[in-house]
Structure formats: structure tokens, C-alpha cells
Specification:
Protein name: Nematode Specific Peptide family
Structural class: mainly beta
Number of helices: 4
Largest sheet: 8 strands, antiparallel
Organism: Caenorhabditis elegans
Pfam family, one: MFP2b
Shape: globular
Number of strands: 29
Length: 385
């Protein structure tokens, strides 16, 4: 379809918001901030007024921060798995307690966007304002509250589209407010399918072939015990590695705000996983929500995944590859009694860990040098033609 005459049908397309209890596992396909693995778009109502904010996954359950027009935030105690502790600021006053009511709403992304007349994307606020007037874009908002991301600080919060002021909560639980919105990103519904939009961008590119933009790693949300995503190409360890006799796949989990890399595998067609934190294994139902790394076609995204020794991986400066990492934590293949299991390595402390049947194996210093680490290697431009 020619997008020149294609506009959003305002009011005819509804977003899918799911009511989610704080302290329960995440549902799949929740909207995230761009390039982030653990900052999700959230919606909450206070006295009937909608407020956009941030939710995150900790120990496999939902936690949330929700800035109001002034700012309000909800937070779970880091040391009590299901205890709900909330903090809010309204008119410069802090409130605490279960004011959030125990539930928030999360924006669900329907993966069958190809059949839809729109798709979601994060857009520069100034551009979103302009194209909303033209009818091509529509901000995802409730009344005057819209979800906004501040790339410079990595913060997800909300913007009041009437007063043109945005509110965020930083890592120190301090309020950050700004009226300089030009370079901030807002979540929009965009007319046309994502494929059609990408093709239009390609047509506008100069030259016979254009270098593809390298996108971020594709981590997708799943729940422990749910059906294995057989339709997804989940990243696994190399087939020539002598493992435990089962296929092992790269997995990500969060505990107390820290990213933890581990392994997932199929158990009777269901997702099972193992992670290590504080010299303890977390597996089974205690995992709750987790993320799996999806390997996309290299010619589509412009990069491929490769396994390298730790010594090679850490020497990535001025190279065409970089370790797959979050806060120095990388997926790693760790030896245990002659077999190899997916665990993690901390590239700052040179410490690798993995668990098997409740027993944790830890390598430090020299033995870490030879373990295999997952890296992302850029594709040569000629291979993308």
C-alpha cells in the first residue's frame, strides 16, 4: 500500500494493556524502552488519572516506578520477594505504602504486526508532534500522559503532552524533570507495517547497497515453565562443544537489579533455566520471568554471533566484534568435570560461574582465560548486498 495516502485511523485502533499484579511473573511481549532489556512501559491510575511510568523485572517478578504529573513511584523491597513497598511524590510530597493498589498495566506488543495497519516505534518527540498532526503517527498515551525515554540518561518516564513537561526517576530515586523535549523519544503507533516502513527507508538510501544499521541484541521475554518457543531461533552453544547431552540456550535474568546470564533448555517441551547469584543456584519456579537471546538472520541485522575465548573477547577495542554483555556480565561456556555448561563471566572481576544440580562452580583469574565467551561480530558490508 502507498503510505503517502495512509493515515492512522484515530480511535479505531486500541492498544492492548494487560492488568498485572506487582510481584508476579511478566507476561510475554511487553513494550520496552529502546535498547533496554529491563525497562518496560507501565500504566497506573491514581484517583482516576492515568500515569505512564516504568516497570522492571527483579527475581522474575514485576516491580514498578510510576512518575505522575509531579512524580510517583512504586517499588518492591529488594530483600522480600513479594512484599510491596511503594513510594510516590505528588506536589513535592512523598507518599509510601501500598498506594499503587497492587496492580499496574503493561503494554503488550502483538507480534503479528504484518497483518496490522500500524506498528510501534520510539520517535523523536518533535517529529512525533509534527507527524501526529499529519495523521501518520499517534502517540501512545492516556489522556495527556505519554511514555517517554531520555536516551542521554537511560531513563524511562512520562511526558505531559498538554504542559510539555517530562518526569523521570533516576537510579538514586531522585526526580528529574525537563521541558527540553526535542531530543527525547516518545512511543508512537505508526501508520503502515514495520516491513513497509523499512522498505521505504531502503528506497530512500543512496547507492546500490546501503550498510544496515546494527540493532541491539534481541532479548525476548518468556516465563519459566511455559511452552518452548520452537518458532524462535534461540542462541545456543556450539554443536561441537561436549555438553551435558542437551541443547543449552543463552538466557538472561535479573535479581536485585543485576543482570545474570545463565542457561535455558527444553524439559518436556517447557522452558527450564538455571542462574547463579551470590554463590547460589536459582532454578525451577523461583526463576519466574526470564529472557532468551534470539539469533536473527545476519544479512537482516548486520551482525552475527560468534564464540571466542575470553582472552580474544576482552581485546575488542578497534575490532569488528564486541562481547555480548550487560554491566560487564557475558554469557560464557564453563567447564564442569569434563563437560561444558552455559553460565556467565564477569569481565571486570574475571570471575566465571555456573551451577549444576544445586552445586556452583566458580573460576577465577587464570582458568577464566580459556573459557568461551559470546560475542557479536559485524558483517562486512559486501556480505549485506
Amino acid at each position: 500500500m502507498d503510505r503517502k495516502g495512509f493515515t492512522m485511523e484515530k480511535g479505531n485502533i486500541d492498544d492492548i494493556w494487560t492488568l498485572q499484579k506487582v510481584g508476579t511473573p511478566f507476561p510475554p511481549n511487553v513494550a520496552k524502552a529502546p535498547g533496554e532489556t529491563n525497562k518496560y512501559v507501565a500504566l497506573w491510575y491514581k484517583h482516576g488519572k492515568p500515569v505512564m511510568g516504568r516497570a522492571w523485572n527483579d527475581s522474575g517478578v514485576v516491580k514498578g516506578i510510576l512518575p505522575t504529573v509531579d512524580m510517583c513511584s512504586g517499588k518492591l523491597d529488594r530483600f522480600a520477594k513479594f512484599q510491596l513497598i511503594c513510594m510516590f511524590v505528588l506536589d513535592d510530597k512523598i507518599y509510601s505504602g501500598a498506594d499503587v493498589g497492587g496492580s499496574i498495566q503493561l503494554l503488550i506488543l502483538d507480534h503479528i504486526e504484518k497483518s496490522k495497519s500500524f506498528h510501534y516505534d520510539w520517535v523523536n518527540f518533535k517529529k512525533a508532534q509534527s507527524l501526529t498532526i499529519e495523521g501518520k503517527y499517534e502517540m501512545v498515551r492516556c489522556e495527556y500522559s505519554a511514555s517517554m525515554y531520555w536516551p542521554e540518561h537511560g531513563l524511562l518516564g512520562c511526558v505531559n503532552t498538554e504542559k510539555l513537561v517530562a518526569h523521570f526517576v533516576d537510579n538514586e530515586m531522585q526526580i528529574k524533570t525537563t521541558k527540553k523535549l526535542e531530543h527525547l523519544l516518545v512511543l508512537c503507533k505508526i501508520a503502515g507495517s514495520r516491513d513497509a516502513t523499512e522498505k521505504e527507508k531502503e528506497k530512500g538510501s543512496t547507492g546500490s547497497a546501503s550498510k544496515l544499521l546494527t540493532v541491539v541484541n534481541d532479548w525476548e521475554d518468556f516465563n519459566w515453565g511455559s511452552a518452548w518457543p520452537s518458532n524462535k531461533n534461540v542462541m545456543s552453544i556450539p554443536k561441537n562443544i561436549p555438553s551435558a547431552g542437551i541443547d543449552q540456550f543463552v538466557a538472561l535474568w535479573y535479581r536485585h537489579g543485576k543482570p545474570i546470564m545463565g542457561r535455558a533448555w527444553q524439559s518436556n517441551g517447557r522452558i527450564e533455566a538455571s542462574f547463579v547469584d551470590a554463590k547460589r543456584e536459582f532454578t525451577g519456579a523461583t526463576v519466574g520471568s526470564l529472557q532468551l537471546l534470539i539469533s536473527l538472520p545476519p544479512t537482516t541485522v548486520g551482525y552475527d554471533y560468534v564464540w571466542m575465548t575470553y582472552t580474544q573477547a576482552i581485546d575488542y577495542r578497534d575490532k569488528d566484534y564486541v562481547p555480548v554483555h550487560l554491566s560487564y556480565i557475558c554469557p560464557a561456556i564453563v567447564p564442569v568435570d569434563g563437560k561444558f555448561f552455559l553460565g556467565q563471566v564477569n569481565m571486570k572481576t574475571e570471575c566465571a560461574t555456573v551451577a549444576l544440580n544445586g552445586s556452583v562452580t566458580q573460576l577465577d583469574g587464570g582458568p577464566v582465560k580459556s573459557i568461551m565467551v559470546l560475542c557479536r561480530k559485524e558483517m562486512a558490508e559486501t556480505m549485506l548486498i
